[in-house]
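Can you give me the bound-state structure? Components:
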Amino acid sequence: MSKTAKDHAGLAADFNKDPERVSWHDETLWWVRAKRDKAAQGIPEWEALRETASGIKAHTLSNLSAYLEAFEKAAIANGAIVHWAADAAEHNEIVLSLLRKAKADRMMKSKSMLTEECHLNDFLKARGVETIDTDLGERIVQLLDEPPSHIVLPAIHRKKEEIGVLFHKHLDTPEGSADPQLLTHAARLNLRDVFLTRNVALTGVNFAIAETGEFVVCTNEGNADMGAHLADIHIAAMGIEKLIPKREHLGFFLRLLTRSATGQPITTYSSHFKKPRAGQELHIILVDNGRSVQLGREDFRSSLKCIRCGACMNTCPVYRRSGGHSYHTAVAGPIGSILAPNLDMEKYADLPFASTLCGSCTNVCPVKIDIHEQLYKWRQVIVKNGYSGKLKTASMKGMAFVLSKPRVFNFSGKAGRWVLKHAPFIVNNALNPWYKQRDMPEPPAESFHQWYSKNRGKRS
Amino acid sequence: MRVGLFIPCYVDQFYPQVAIATLELLEKLGVEVGFPLKQTCCGQPMANSGYEHLTGGCNALFTELFAEFDYVVSPSGSCTLHVKEHLHVDGSEAAAKSVRSRIYELTEFLTDVLKIEHLRARFPYRVSMHQACHGQRGLHLSQMSELVAAPYSKPERLLKMVDGLQLVPLTRPDECCGFGGTFCVTEEAVSARVGQDRIADHEQSGTEYITSADMSCLMHLEGILRRKNSPVRVRHIAEILNAE
Amino acid sequence: MSSSRDNILKAVAANQPELLPLPQLPQFAAYFDIPLLKFRDVLEGIGATVLSVSGYADIRNHLATHFDLTKPVYSTIAALPEFALRPGSYSRPQDLHNVELIILPAEFGVAENGAVWITDEALPERALPFIPEHLAVVIAEDAILANMHEAYLQIGQRDYGWAAFIAGPSKTADIEQSLVLGAHGPRSMTVFLLKMSGSNPDPS
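Here's the bound-state model for the whole set.
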C-alpha cells in the first residue's frame, strides 16, 4: 500500500458514512445468500456435491502440469490456437498483438475477472483500442469509469436511480426513469449494435476440460455467445487453475456454480466451445500471473480451487457492510483476501485482517476452500514478513508479556478496573475507537481471581 | 472427575459473575472443580492479530497449569477453539496435545460429557440466542445455516431445560456479531455496524435477554445496547443455566 | 531462451503437491419423482413458456397465434419446411439480426434446471439460438433426463464444435437485483414438448 492510499479499514469507514446505503447493500446481498440457501436446501446431495467438486479440484491442482499439456494438445487438435502468458503484462500484449494482426481497433468483451486482474481495458485504451464490456453490470461500471465491486454482480453497489441518470447521459433514456426493464432494454439495443459491428470478441472461461480441449462459458445474458458467434476472432482468456480433468466433471460444477452464486439452478447459457466456427480464429490464452506461486504455498494453494461464484462475498458480514471497492483489488471479499497477498503482500497486507474469522465463507464455498483458516494463516505470514505496523508489533509484544506473567496480568486488570471506575474519561474519549459507538464495560468490584481467593481459599 | 476451570482473561477481569456462575453450575452438577490461580489468557488476541509466534509463554503456562485435570472447561467457545487448534509447546508437545484433547466449552461439556437431561434452573424471561461463530462453526455447538444438514443446538437444548424461559427467534440466526477480537477497534466502523444490525434483529424478536456461550460477543453487543439506552440486557448462558 | 510456456509448465510442475487421487464420483438418484413434471415446473419458474403438443399442427397453431409470422421466422426442423433457412439467403450471421423467431430441435432436457441441450451438429449458424427476438425449441416429451450427471452420460464423448445448455430466455438482474427477462439473447423462450414415441423431434 502506498503511504497515502487508504486501506480496507479506511475505505470501509468511508462506506459507512452513509448508513442507509450500507443497509441497502447489506440486505441486497443477504437476499442473494438466502436464495443460495434455498437452492442448496433443495438438493439433498448438496454436501456430497461440494465434497466431490473439492476433491476433483484438489486432484487437478496436484496434476496441473500434465493437465495443462493435455488441454493444450487437445485444443490445438480442435483447431484452436493456444498462447501462454506468464503475467498480466504478457496477457495484455498477446491480446493487443491479436488485435493489431486483425487490424482491429475495437473489441467486445464478456465478463472476465482475469482481464480485470490484468487491467486489460486501460492497457488497450492507452494504445488506441476501444473495449466495450457487454455484460450489463460490467457495462454500467465501465460507463461510470469504476471497477466492478462484485465478481458476479458488478454493479451491485449502485442504485437504479443512479443507473437511470447514467443511461440518460450515455444511452438517451428518458430523464428520471429508473425502471430496470426500460434501462435493460435500452442497453440491449445499444449493445446489439456493438455485437453486430465488432469483429473481435474476448470471453472469459468458467471451466476448461483437459481431456477434450473444450471450455465452458456461463452467462445469463447471452452476451458471451452473441460476441463469440458473430466475431471472426474469439479470444478466450483463462487462468491456469480453471482446468478440470473430464467433461463429465462438469456435471458437478455446473450443478454447484449458479446455485452458489445467485440461487438459480443454472445460468441461462452454459456454452461449450470446442472448435472454432468455420472461417473463425479461436485463441485461448493460458495465464499464470502468480498462480504457479500460489500453487507452491502449502497453506494457500487450495485457494486456486475457486470457481468464482461469489458466495463468500454474499455471506460475509464485513463485505456486505464495506462493499467490494474497499478491498482495492479486482477480486474482493474473503476469496480475494487470500488470493491478493500472493500477488503483492505489501499492497494487500490489510485484507486478511478485514475479517472477524466467523467462518461463514468456508461453509458456503462450493469447493470447500478453508477460507477463514487461510485468512488466519496469512495474518501470521504478513506479520512475519514485516508488513504489520511497528506500533502494533510493540503493543502485541507488550500484551504477550502481560499475558504470560500472572502477577503482571492481575495487576494490569486491577489498574484497568480502577481507571474505569475512578477516571473513566481517560478511556471514554475520542482516542478510544471502541468508545466511538459503544459504551465500555462496567468495572466490577473485583476480578474472579480475587473472588475465588477470597471465597474458595487455598483450593486451586 | 476433576475439572480445571479456564476463565477467559476479559471474563476474569470484567465479568466475574460469569465465572462464578460457571463454577457454581458445575459444582451443582456434582463436578469437582479446580481453578489454577496463575492462569491468564489463551493467547488468542495475539494469535488472531498475526502474532501467534509470541504466544509461546501463554501456551507453556496454560499447559503447565491444566495438565493435572481430567477435563478443562471454559465458558467461552472462541477461547476453547483457539486452545484446541493452536496450543503447542516446544518441548512439551505431548502435554499440549493432551490438554487440547481434554478441553471443552461449557455447553458441550454439559451435553457431551455430563450428558445432563434436566436442570434445576428458572429464568422466566424472553431470551434470544446469539450463536457465537467460533463455538458454532468451530466447535459445532449448533448446526450452521450454511450447510444442508440436520439442525441441532447444544446451547438451545440446555436453555429449553430452564423453567419459564421463552426462546425467541431471530431473522438471521447465526450472523456474526462483528466483535472479531482486535477487529473491533481496527475496523471500528464495520464492527459497530454489524453489532448494531444484530441488536436490531434481537430487538425485533421482543427479547428481554440476549444470551450466548461467548462473553466477548455479549460485551460488544452490550456496549451498543447501553449506548442506545436499550432495556434489553445481556446474560451469559452460564448465568441463565445457573439461575434459580 | 525459454518460452513462457516452458517457464509456466516448469513452475507448475515444481510447485504442485504430491498427486492426490481423483475422488470416486458418487451416483445421485433424482430427488423428485417425475422428470417431465419437474422440468415443466422449473422451466416455467424461470420464465419460459412450456406447452405439451401432439404434433406439428399444434406447433404451427401456436406460432401463428403468438408470433408475427410476417417477420422473418426460421427453423432447422425438417417438419417445418415453410420456415427453412435457405443456404445462400444470408452471407454472414450478422445478417440474421432482424429475425423475429427461431425454432430449433433440442436433443434432450434436464429436469433439475429446465435446460435443453443444443449442439452445432445440425445448426447452420451458432448465432441462431441467440440472435432472434424469440426462441422456440421442440423436444420429445420422453427425452427429459433427471440431472446433469445423466446429461453428461448421454453426451458422452460427442465431438461437437460447439454446444450449449439453454435454460429459458436471456435475463439479467444486474440492476438492483431486479429480474429482467430479455438481455442480449432472446427475450422469450417457448418449449414444445412433443408427445411422440420413438421421439425424434425432427423427423426428416
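A couple of observations. Residues 2 and 32 of chain B are 5 Å apart (CA to CA). The longest helix of chain B spans residues 188-204.
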